[in-house]
Amino acid sequence: MAGPRRRRMRAVPRHAAIELIALDGIPEVTPGDDLASLIAAALERGGIGLRDEDVLVVTQKVVSKAEGRVVALASVQPSAEALEFATRWGKDPRQVELVLRESVEVVRMESGLIIARTRHGFVCANAGVDLSNVGGGEVATLLPDDPDASAGALREALGERSGARPAIVISDSFGRPWRNGIVNVAIGTAGIQALADLRGRPDAQGREMRSTVIALADELASAADLAGGKVAQRPVVLVRGYAYTPSGTDDRGAQALVMPREQDLFP
Amino acid sequence: MAGPRRRRMRAVPRHAAIELIALDGIPEVTPGDDLASLIAAALERGGIGLRDEDVLVVTQKVVSKAEGRVVALASVQPSAEALEFATRWGKDPRQVELVLRESVEVVRMESGLIIARTRHGFVCANAGVDLSNVGGGEVATLLPDDPDASAGALREALGERSGARPAIVISDSFGRPWRNGIVNVAIGTAGIQALADLRGRPDAQGREMRSTVIALADELASAADLAGGKVAQRPVVLVRGYAYTPSGTDDRGAQALVMPREQDLFP
After folding, report:
1. How many degrees, rounded to 5, is the angle at CA B103 between CA B97 and CA B109?
2. Would you call B265 an interface residue with chain A, using a CB distance cutoff of 8 Å?
3. B132 contacts in A (CB within 8 Å)?
4. Which residues of B touch A48 (CB under 8 A)?
5. Domain B19-69+144-258 class?
6. What is the pLDDT of residues A123-174, one digit of tens each?
7. The pLDDT value given to residue B12
8. pTM flag (> 0.95)
9. Is A229 helix (H, G, I), strand (E, B) or coil?
């Protein structure tokens, strides 16, 4: 049965479909881990041969942990401002201190929430600072220093191990004004155009699309979250069958998703 | 060859995967069309048996057109306010007039953009009013009157035709503050909990998740856009293999995604 079964697995699906495949068996990541090796091993155990045409969506948390972007809370000395806000709202003052340090601008600081602009230009809760447990100790994970560079390095390392250079999207979960709930968005990309600019192209009715720029990397991050999930905690999702547009030498990464403040109606 | 080929198509994939399948052959939709019949026919032509476990993501545009939520621009008499804004920014004053009529509040009206709150509570560009061509005439499509009811009616009609009652998500493309590009979000749902509230549940490290409410219906809408796309214009996407949480009798639809203004830091 092994032969035919194997062949059936590889059958071309009847309908061209995009597949979202969460990788099993990525272990708890700790500082210094080689994330590319962990992913390559998970792919191999799953019998999945990586292809240039694939997109790998990886959560920020495992990238940050592998890169050592973790801070032991015990080592943090909160400022007076952090202490006051934390006391008022029942927060950990050491986390608040890290949030303020990671922010270039506090956009809102009320009702126990801090919405901040990070130095990458992302506007999100807590400037991306998450509380976590690593090796039993209480730590905060910070966003990668340069998530596009993290994505690029992961792509190169996977290329060395597997011969394939897929597109990489590093995802994080952000809230939004006006809508309940968080969704996953892209904070770093490599090898893929994060935005599809369709302006000037005709739509199906031959009408020119005037304002259609699509944040495809954000949509890929959201799609991957459906497969990886918050509870299942499978931090790496393979997207297969999606014909992404490769970035050229002008790869701006996920920085292309950051709206310039002068264009923003909600600066 | 037909027998084995058929069997191969139905093989269980080796890795549990979510599939995003854009339906081919949905024709241009016009007012009065029976959308459920068009979808059922497309599924049948594709050899896809609909299941209760599936999610169908349908773009707002085809729902609005089928429901006759279209206005011939020639019939619209613009107000002085609409005329002034349109003249200043090179817009069609009749479209601006419709945008103002569809808005309960104009959130921003500058740089040629109108960001408005619709009576459903959605904050989006142009209150969801799109210019389009229907039968050669220039029309505006408006959002459905009650997108959750539209989703519910479509679900019932599909159930009558196919015996299966999948979850329904009606999607539209919204911009966001701070980020370039639009992404698809949910404006109507039926049969599915739009939000997953994981607060109080332990994460993989046993730490209680304090603020994790995930806008799954928005993530489904974004995922579907990758398969359906703006250019390909395949307005219906089947999501198969995603274990959604069915809504109970307390189905609030996509209204669960609307943030109450008193909780909003950006009201």
Report:
1. 70
2. yes
3. 205, 207
4. 15
5. alpha beta
6. 999 999 998 776 677 899 999 999 999 999 999 999 999 999 999 999 999 9
7. 38
8. no
9. coil
